[in-house]
Structures are given as structure tokens and as C-alpha cells.
Amino acid sequence: DEEKLNETIEALAYAPFDLYSGPLLRATILQANNHSRHVLHITLHHLIADGVSVHVLIDALRAMLNGQTLS
Predict the structure, then answer these.
(1) Given 3-state DSSP classes, what are the helix, strand and coil percentages for the chain, each rounded to the nearest 5?
(2) Sign of CA dihedral 2, 11, 30, 34
(3) Which of 13, 15, 23, 42 is paired with 7 by a 20 to 30 Å CA distance?
(4) 16-20, long-range: CB within 8 Å, 24+ apart, which pairs?
(5) Rounded to 5 degrees, what angle do the CA atoms 28, 53, 31 make?
(6) What residues have CB less than 8 Å from 61, skipping those under 6 apart?
């Protein structure tokens, strides 16, 4: 249900990073609504991404979800 999904997302978001052995980027696909919806949760440490690179990542994901080819 939606409450469990939100709890899982919160746990993923607040899980600590191991700066020595990584990974510093974590991606998790969660199933919701009895497998009728999927949620991609991405958590990354600020050491590997600044504001610009996060926007580039979001724009690339959005383009791919819309069926566009990345160049």
C-alpha cells in the first residue's frame, strides 16, 4: 500500500553511505499498487553530484521515459 511504499522510500533516502567502499549512487525500483505501478528511487551522495549534474540526470531520465534517444 501507499504508506508502506512511503516508508520504504524514506528508509532508502536516509540509509547512510559508506564513503570508503560505496556505492555513492543507489537506484532501486519499487513495485506499487499491486504491481500496476513502479517507482524508481535514486539516492546519491553530494560528493558525486552537484546541482547541475542532478538536473542533467533528471532530464536524461525524463527523455528516456518519453521514448527519446539520448545523444
Answers:
(1) 40, 25, 40
(2) negative
(3) 23
(4) 17/45, 19/45, 19/47
(5) 15
(6) 40
Nearest CA to 41 out of 8, 3, 4, 1 is that of 8
Q: Retrieve residue 71's grid coordinates.
A: 545523444
8-state DSSP, 70: P
Encode pLDDT of 1-56 as tens digits.
889 999 999 999 999 999 999 999 999 999 988 778 899 999 999 999 999 999 99
- All three cell numbers of 2: 501507499
Q: How many CB atoms lie under 10 A from the CB of residue 50? A: 10
